[in-house]
Specification:
With about 250 residues, the protein is an alpha+beta fold. The chain has one domain: Roll (2,3-Dihydroxybiphenyl 1,2-Dioxygenase, domain 1). The chain is about 20% helix and about 30% strand. It is built from four helices and 16 strands. The chain has an eight-stranded mixed beta sheet. Strands 6-7-8-5-9-12-11-10 form an eight-stranded mixed beta sheet, with helices on one face. A hairpin with a 2-residue loop joins strand 10 and strand 11. The longest helix is centred in the middle third of the chain and has 13 residues. Pfam families: Glyoxalase_6. GO terms for molecular function: lyase activity. This is Putative enzyme related to lactoylglutathione lyase. Keywords: Lyase.
Amino acid sequence: MSEAMTSHLFAISYDAADPVRLGRFWAALLGREMVADPRDGVLVLPGADTELRLRFVPAQQPKTVQNRMHVDLTSGSLEEQQRTVARALELGGQHTDVGQLPEERHVVLADPEGNEFCVIEPGNNFLAGCGFTGALACDGSQAVGYFWSEALGWPLVWDQDEETAIQSPLGGTKITWGGPPMMPNGGRDRLHFDVAPPADGDQRAEVDRLLSLGATLLHAGGSDTGRVLMADPDGTAFCLLRPRQPGSTA
């Protein structure tokens, strides 16, 4: 399938009690620009075509369970890993325990609202060449990896032991799914994908295509939102936005 016929991954969207504060944390940590989102909240823009846009939107529900997706930041050396950890703590992050073992070399942190992320040790061959934001690591089945590969037109770059990963044809950040055992669904996810049809695409036709790939329809937003809430084959929610306007950041 040609990339022009697929959805585009517009952003990784975070529910946030304070979107501006959380956006500033991530913009400073990643060295990127933060701008207002015309829809709601703020955007942290990608610094290159191979990086993922982050979106922070206001939400009232407090975080109560471990997120089912998180960012993995890469390191070129032990000193660089230590600098990234120190910078995150300086900006308001904190160490957190998700059951990691003492001998594991990556460092697990949380942002100011408790969203987990990892600072990966140097020498990780799987993330070599992916950039600072090396991966978005997700809890999910092999079927979901296949689904998103088709939905986004991103090739599978890993498919072994029910673990999958996809990557844009341009390279950059990988999206990975760890396979079983999977975490229980603790309700609304604080992180989700925002996807959009191509600029000249049709939202209704894209809904139908995603349904044919195994998605389900959760809620069709009204004309005031332009969003259609859907779920992937694992039941994890994502939003399909209106087609992107050429040259628009939102």
